[in-house]
Specification:
CATH architecture: 2-Layer Sandwich
EC number: 2.2.1.6
Mean pLDDT: 88
Keywords: Amino-acid biosynthesis, Branched-chain amino acid biosynthesis, Transferase
Enzyme class: transferase
Number of domains: 1
Number of strands: 4
CATH class: Alpha Beta
Radius of gyration: 13 Å
CATH topology: Alpha-Beta Plaits
Subunit structure: Dimer of large and small chains.
Order of helices and strands: EHEEHE
Number of helices: 2
Low-confidence stretches: 81-85
Largest sheet: 4 strands, antiparallel
Catalytic activity: 2 pyruvate + H(+) = (2S)-2-acetolactate + CO2
């Protein structure tokens, strides 16, 4: 199943690399990635999509929340019905 994660992280040098490195080190492939500034210049929003089952998603969420630069993680699951026309 495809999952969309929205991550608020400190806008510091190396923050994105640490998040991407966590995924890479654990064998998770990032399908898409978008980073944008928020109204607060000290915070960025990272939106990414990944594929995986519930156990894999739980592992990703728990490990991402442990990163020092990460302030908040939200999960938005995409159901197959949402793409039907």
């Amino acid at each position: 199943m495809k999952h969309t994660l929205s991550i608020l992280l400190q806008n510091e040098v190396g923050a994105l690399v640490r998040v991407a490195g966590l995924f890479s080190a654990r064998g998770h492939n990032i399908d898409s990635l978008h980073v944008a500034a928020t109204r607060d210049p000290a915070v960025s929003r990272l939106t990414l999509t990944v594929h995986g089952d519930a156990a894999r998603l739980t592992q990703i969420l728990n490990q991402t929340r442990k990163l020092v630069d990460v302030l908040q993680v939200e999960h938005r699951s995409e159901s197959p019905e949402s793409h039907a026309a």
